[in-house]
Amino acid sequence: MSAGSPVPPAPERVLIAERPGRSWSAWLANLARAFFWIVLAAVLLQYGCASSGVVAARKQLLDLLQQQRKSRVIAMIHGQDTVSFFGVPVASSITMEDSEAVLRAIRLTPADQPIDMILHTPGGLVLAAEQISKALADHKGKVTVFVPHYAMSGGTLIALAADEIVMDPNAVLGPVDPQIGDMPAASIVKVTELKKSAQVSDQMLVLADISGKARVQVSAFVTKLLLKHFPQDKAVALATTLTDGRFTHDYPITVETAIGFGLPISETMPLDVYHLMDLYPQTGIGRPSVLYVPFHRAPDARAEPATLPSSPSGPQQAPEQKH
């Protein structure tokens, strides 16, 4: 630029007016986010504290029962819960994780020590229920199963392994006919009997084949359990009654009916069993379905954990046989 040339004027600053209310809306959004996270943290903290307190109360009551009855007490309690914050219904049943936990509790119990099992369940996987049943049936000490409300299907299968079944006067057991997927095995077989093979799909024919095998297998297993209480002919007859599908799967076997079957039924339910059920309200999440506490032993005795950690679920196979 040559000397004496006029100096160009400096560019004017452009002022952008802020939108009224923009900073206010951003502040409100940040406040809402902070409030949400604070509330969520408070709810989770409250639930965690309440849950730990309930679990501690359950352990204390189980320990009291063990000392009173001089037995190993195992609780397997299932039900449908409502998650308190999200409101999602969660149902539980007998799983392989349950059988692993119960078998471990039995394994840690001396052979001549009585076992008391508190059952509240709609049933579940055949394999898991049969594993628990066999372990209880093979235990040398007396096995007592307490049914304060209901032990259906696979739960009944477990109860049949006991030396004594203690039921509330209004409690019920149920049939143990196998279910293939969500269908009764007996009904699947009946469809193929009512229709000609050409009118039945290949899938249904396969299911009918599986159903026939499942019925034979479960009937044989139940017969073996019942030989603990009955001669061969009566064991076979009762096993057939419970497994052949003559009842609907939710048919209630009352105390009177069970006594009529000749099962070793008692109605002397300890009050502490009801108190334990009070500690399993149908709300909340994260409660263990199998729980037991250690015996009071000498310091050099084998230590065992107070709770049973659940192992990750394995791959599911379809169709599953359920009770």
Describe the overall structure.
44% of the residues lie in helices and 13% in strands. It is of the alpha/beta class and 323 residues long. The strands form four sheets. The chain has a six-stranded mixed sheet, with helices on both faces. The protein has a three-stranded antiparallel sheet with strand order 10-9-13. Helix 2 packs parallel to helix 3. The longest helix is centred in the N-terminal third of the chain and has 48 residues. 33% of the residues are buried.
Topology:
Elements: H1 22-69, E1 72-77, E2 80-82, E3 89-91, H2 96-107, E4 115-120, H3 126-138, E5 143-147, E6 150-151, H4 154-159, E7 164-167, E8 172-173, E9 179-180, E10 183-184, H5 185-194, H6 202-226, H7 232-243, H8 255-261, E11 265-266, H9 271-278, E12 290-291, E13 321-322
Helix pairs in contact: 1-9, 2-3, 5-6, 6-7
CATH topology (fold) name of the largest domain: 2-enoyl-CoA Hydratase, Chain A, domain 1
Largest β-sheet summary: 6 strands, mixed
Indicate the proportion of strand residues.
Answer: 5-15%
Number of helices: 9
Number of domains: 2
Helix content: 40-55%
Average per-residue pLDDT, rounded, comes to: 82
Number of strands: 13
Q: What string, H for helix and E for strand, traces the elements in order? A: HEEEHEHEEHEEEEHHHHEHEE
Low-confidence stretches: 81-90, 301-318
CATH architecture type of the largest domain: Alpha-Beta Complex
Q: How large is the radius of gyration?
A: 30 Å
Anisotropy-based shape? flat
Q: Which structural category fits the helices and strands?
A: alpha/beta
The spatial strand order of the largest sheet comes to 11-7-5-4-1-12
Q: What is the CATH first-level class name of the largest domain?
A: Alpha Beta
Alpha-carbon distance between the two ends: 97 Å
